[in-house]
Amino acid sequence: MITVWPTSVYVSSTATLQMDLCVTIKGVSFLLQTGLGVLGNALVLLAYVHIAHGADHKLLPTDLILCHLAFSNLVLLLTRCVPQTMTVFGLHDLLDDAGCKVVIYLYRITRALSVCLTCMLSVFQAATLAPDAPRLKAALPALVLPSFAGLWLLNMAVCVAAPFFSIAPRNGTVPAFTLNLGFCHVDFRDYLSYVINGVAVSARDFAFVLLMLLSSGYILLILHRHSRRVRSVRRGAAAQGVETRAAKTVVTLVVLYAVFFGIDNVIWIYMLTVAKVSPVVADMRVFFSSSYAFLSPYFIISSNKKIKGKLVCAVEQQQSPAETQTSNEK
For 15-26, b where at least 16 C-beta lie within 10 A, e where not — what string? Predict the structure, then answer.
């Protein structure tokens, strides 16, 4: 006797398999991004801590900015990608209303600091390379900490509305003008609040991105003039090699941020035009907005000789006792 399964059962099982595959791909993607991102930024921070407490403990302004950038990216990944990954794998009710307010506020601030510190890095590097600004170059070390304080205060003020709209997920349908983050909801309650928040955040981000692109363009112009000068006069090329490498690193970081910023804001502008955002679209925005925090530390490690040297030295120190113990056993 041949059993004929109803068509509805076949369609339902196919849809379930497709959903499971989608969830698995999404979960693995967020897990890899979170794990590798946290590891990379932690390595950068530990390397700079080791440098600061070592014999050559002097950190340049760009070193301080990179260290602060790694810290901001680390907190960003911990407050956004870690709960997102846990939610994808089926863990719910992670946070209450108070927890959501704290986590979302920290995420918004560190996400803003990521763009602001990349901009600050570009501006400081441009000022370092500027040939006609010796006073500004001498004043840069004294401007680092006040700039950090100013950026923190600015972004704490811009993001102050985030805690008021952040709540734990409720049972039932998601209301209109609500960002469903999975582990938390950001309920703007009406269209005006939704748009005002989006415009304020986008205006701040676009201003800093424009400034970093302008300063990076100035850096490229200086590097072009320098390369033409070096072709005719070979002396002094090695002396400025460090600044040239640092400038190229900064420009690459800016380009990397600009690419992910563009993708992030295209999705964000689309989200502002609809009352109910699809979870797939929200997940795409989370992934691309966190990609800079995930990739930037590995580029910093590969291009920064200080950090690379400390990490290589730490690995060699770990290998030496193991090799000694092996030889003694033989």
Answer: eeeeeeeeeeeb
Contact call for residues 302 and 44 (beta carbons, < 8 A): no
Q: What are phi and psi of 186, to 5 degrees?
A: -110, 100
Asked which of 51-60, 177-186, 259-268 is least confident by mean pLDDT, the reply is 51-60
How many angstroms separate the CA atoms of 238 and 259, rounded? Answer: 32
Which range has the worst mean pLDDT, 32-36, 77-81, 234-238, 325-329? Answer: 234-238
Which class for 327: exposed (0-12), middle (13-18), buried (19 or more C-beta within 10 A)? exposed
DSSP assignment of 70-131:
HHHHHHHIIIIIHHHHHHHTT------HHHHHHHHHHHHHHHHHHHHHHHHHHHHHHHHH-T
CB atoms within 10 A of CB 120: 26
Nearest by Cα to 45 from 300, 290, 292? 300
pLDDT at 201: 81
Residues 25-44 have a mean pLDDT of 90
SS3 39: helix
Q: Are 89 and 25 in contact (CB under 8 A)?
A: no
